[in-house]
Structures are given as C-alpha cells and as structure tokens.
Amino acid sequence: MVGVLRQYGVMTTRRDYYEVLGVTRGADDTEIKKAYRRMAMKYHPDRNPDDKSAEAVFKECQEAYEVLSDPQKRAVYDQFGHAGVQGGGMPGGGPFGAGGFADIFDNVFGDIFGGGGGRRGSQVYRGADVRFTLDLSLEDAVFGTEARIRVPTMATCDLCKGSGARAGSVPVTCPTCGGHGQVRLQQGFFSIQQTCPNCRGSGRTISQPCVECRGEGRTRRAKTLSVTIPAGVDEGDQIRVSGQGDAGENGGPAGDLYVQIKLKPHAFFRREQDDLYCKVPVRFGIVVLGGEIEIPSLDGRMTLKIPPETQTDKVFRVRGKGVKNVRTGHVGDLFCQITVETPVKLTRAQRELLEAFDASIREGGERHNPVEHSWLDKLRGFFEPKARSSGE
Predict the structure, then answer these.
(1) Which residues participate in Zn(2+) 1 binding (predicted)?
(2) pLDDT at 30
C-alpha cells in the first residue's frame, strides 16, 4: 500500500504504516506502542542532529502511530489505505491530529518522563526512609531480644492533620498549575513536564499556614518503637520496619525504618561471622603438667582439658558453641587461645625452687626445649656467614 503526496515540503513516497513501525497487520496495541517507542527513541532529532533523513523517519513514525494506535482510524486505514485517513480521517487536518504530537508523546513516554499532563493531578510523595543505629550486646545479638528505640522522624502534624493550613482555613487550588502539581514546557517536538515551582507539586497553595508545621503538613518528632531483634544478627545487619520512616507528603505513604546493628565490645569474646574467639590465661604449671581449666561460653561455664606440654598460643576448638546464623541456621564454634602467664612477685623460696628447676632443664638440653634449641641453631647459622665474611 504505497501512495505519493507532497509532505513536509518535499515529494515523498508514503510507506505502509505497519512497515514503518516494523509490525505485522495483526499486531496488538501493546506491540504497536513498543514498536513506536523503539523507533522514536532511535530517530529522534535530538539524537541525530543535522540528520534530515532521521528526522523524516521520526515524523513518519509519528504519523503511523497516530493512525494505528486509534482503533477507528486503524479500521479506516486497513480498508481504504492512506486515502482514508487524509484530511477528514484525521481530525485537526494534520498527521498528528487535534491533540498534536504532545498527546502522542504523553501516551507513549509518559511512564518514563512523568507525562499525562493535567490528567495526573496533584503529586503525592512517599516519605523518606529513616536509618537508626542500634548498639547491641553480643548476647542480645546471639539470642535475640525485643529492643525499644526512640527514633526522630517527620510525622504528620497533629494540629492541621497534614493539610498544612491553619484551623478555619483550607488550601486552595494552585493558580499556576491549576491543581495538577506540574507545568508543561514545550521544547521542540518534546513536551516536558516539571514540578510546579509555585506549589512544589502539591497542586495547592496555602494562604494561612498552620502555626505548628508552618504549612509543611509534617513536624519533626521522636517516636518510641519496639523492634524485634532475631537471634543471630551480626554487625552491619539491617532490620526493616515497614511504614515507620518519615510520613509522606500530600497523603503519600510513609517510608520505612532501617535498624542497623552495631555490636558492643565484649569482655571475653570476639565474633567473626558465626564463630567466637577468646584468649584464656593459663598457669605455667598447668600447661607443663596438664590439667583442666574453666572457660566462658554464651551458654555458661565450661571445662576445657589442657594436655601436658601445651605451648603458648595453642588454640582449642569447642564445636557448636558459637553463633547460630540468622539466615542459614548454621552454628559456629568457639576457639580458645591459650596464653601462658609468667609468675610474678616470687618469694625467695619460690625463686630458689625455680632456679633449681631451670638448672635441671638446661642439663637436659634439647630434650626439654627442642623449639629453643632449633631456633638457636638457626640464629648461629644466620650470624656465622657474616662473621666469616668480615674475617676475610
């Protein structure tokens, strides 16, 4: 279906509208709209400056969509072709109809650019999300708790009930935007909408502001909430409390509250993911002869068996005494690092006994202190080459 006419000041061969948009004759409204959006974005003059051919294709797509998006025009076009939709077939006498390209653009790109013009009405705004840091003990993080927190938020004004107007007065329709909350600016082929500068999108103006909120409709207020902390939360975890953030504007929904967990330092334990770590000081006699020591755990006191001749910094693992993961349910372990405590403030008798003991240890040589002797051998090997080199 091809016709010839004078268009945009030049002679052109008019292509089939379905061919222009790249759709079949059986295409539904959604397919046609998607096809037009794709073509319009590709060939728009702003994306193709000084390209007359792209501009021509762009206008051709507009014309095709104006016809195929209207059921009546499409039916006429399917039966009579281009001749059926020229002049009287297209109200307004032009390829864009009475509403012009602005209406086409709003229909297709409104969900992207906030189109729809006055049909949208005044804007409502969702309240902002609020973040609150909660300092939590390790025990409360591991076992869970119910925490009461006091959070500063923007709340709906009690005096004016969110209207922003003083008692006895009411907001009036904004004269700049006519109550729509937006104003339209025409820039070339595009009809761009922006928030009304007079009413800031509310669609209303207030001549007598509320004395409490000064026309804002919201006031800063601290509210007390009870938040359930699930067992196993860790440093940096966030708990979302729906609808407990700042109140919305113009009747919009409230934002959410995000409670971020921060762990307090613990007297014994250091947490790494699901595992717990602690350092345990042990007497010299126990690490030499062996014995049992008492260690802490989150479940209470425990006994740890120390084998004879345990070296300092030895780490013992107690399985299942860590933290149960809040997401996976995996239970971590407890790691106890032994540190040998050097005796202090010895009596004369204790010193004499220790000197005698140390002498007997030295007589045994490498048998009693294999690590020390190995280290001394390495040390001699480190210095001897330097001594020979200096002697030469």
Answers:
(1) 157, 160, 210, 213
(2) 86
